[in-house]
Amino acid sequence: MELTWTQVSAWEALVGACRRCRIRDVVVPSWEHLNTVYSLSLIARKTLQDAIRGRVWFVATDTGELPCPLGVPRKDERP
């Protein structure tokens, strides 16, 4: 799989901004935002975590459900 120059530029911009601003946690909506192939997405996640010395968080789960914010009961837990 080859990367385009725009993908490389976007990646370098992301890593550079995180390093400059000392960002250690990056949140992305889902694994698909890093790569359309799941296993490659995990590699990209690890590479980014190593580059920024931090963590990359996926918001969406494999089930497609988003976790509820703290203190807000899930639909099935409401009275």
Provide a descriptive summary of the structure in words:
The protein is an alpha+beta fold. The chain has helices spanning 5-20, 38-52; strands at residues 25-28, 55-58. Strand 1 (25-28), helix 2 (38-52) and strand 2 form a beta-alpha-beta unit. The radius of gyration is 15 Å and the shape is globular.
List the helices and strands and how they pair.
Blueprint: H1 5-20, E1 25-28, H2 38-52, E2 55-58
Parallel strand pairs: 1-2
Quick gist of this model?
With 79 residues, the protein is of the alpha+beta class. The chain is built from 2 helices and 2 strands; from the N terminus they run αβαβ.
Give the terminus-to-terminus CA distance.
50 Å
Mean pLDDT: 79
Percent range of helical residues? 25-40%
Annotation field: number of helices: 2
Major sheet characteristics? 2 strands, parallel
- Coarse shape: globular
As a percent range, the share of strand residues is 5-15%
Key phrases:
single chain, 79 residues, alpha+beta, two-stranded parallel sheet, 10% strand
